[in-house]
């Protein structure tokens, strides 16, 4: 069901029994006429779309932060280059004035070579050559400073253009998140208490069934000891239980899914990528059988959700908007795989 169609459905359910016009195939059922499983599927889809947009927002925010730093770095270099260019122009100006004021230098030079004291003539010749070198260096320095300043000015403009483009992309991602969350709110508002209870019960049954299947399959290994950093990350994540899911947040008052995992590992002294997709792409992958506390479990085919493994088939996670950081079964969402932020970390001694 498309987002537009879903909005029509929600509006109809809330408008005192208004009926949607039938489609050529069949009438679209109102939320009140649909099963808990169908409603849960729609909610799940909208939550995934919101989280996908959230991760795009997070990735753009990271790139924008890097780009801002690059703009500032180039700006500082450009400022120094302009100061150097100013000094070079001053030196060149002094040189020009000296040349103008000493236009008859050839006469003293000729007098030097005609002098009766050859040694003094040699010394004065050395001074003249030194002055010539200094003048050449002044001109060369001015030329190089002009080139450097022009090059840095172009880089600064390019970097700033990149920053503006990223800011616009970030705004679009933010708007996409808000749009999906508004659709979730509309769908939830269209449900009565009985339907909401039925959807929640349906979700619990599905998760319990998926968890039993995973546990009985033996895909998860036995109890493993975390590394010291992994243990620190787990302790940090567990201290955040009860704090709200806030999209784009990395704490300390709220988190989204990858905001929790990245902040926990940063607190343990090992910074990792900010988004779930970057964590999946850049961290070392491990099999579910090798999982140890602190490892990250990544969900959905496009790696748009992540949680931290605790052991015993449990994870700690910031599940989705409207929830809080909590401990959940590892099979609460379709598992894509797992990654280890500290593959070289030895298990902690106990």
Summarize the structure.
The protein is an alpha+beta fold.
Q: How would you describe this structure to a colleague?
A:
The protein has a 6-stranded antiparallel β-sheet with strand order 1-6-2-3-4-5. Helix content is 61%, strand content 8%. Strand 2 and strand 3 (305-311) form a beta hairpin. The protein contains 8 helices and 6 strands; from the N terminus they run H-H-H-H-H-H-H-H-E-E-E-E-E-E. It has 350 residues and is α+β, with helices and mostly antiparallel strands. It folds into 2 domains: 39-187, Orthogonal Bundle (Helix Hairpins), CATH 1.10.287; 219-340, Alpha-Beta Complex (endopeptidase fold (from Nostoc punctiforme)), CATH 3.90.1720.
Topology of helices and strands:
Elements lengths: L2 H12 L21 H66 L4 H8 L4 H72 L3 H25 L10 H12 L17 H11 L8 H7 L1 E3 L9 E4 L5 E7 L2 E4 L8 E4 L5 E6 L10
Antiparallel strand pairs: 1-6, 2-3, 2-6, 3-4, 4-5
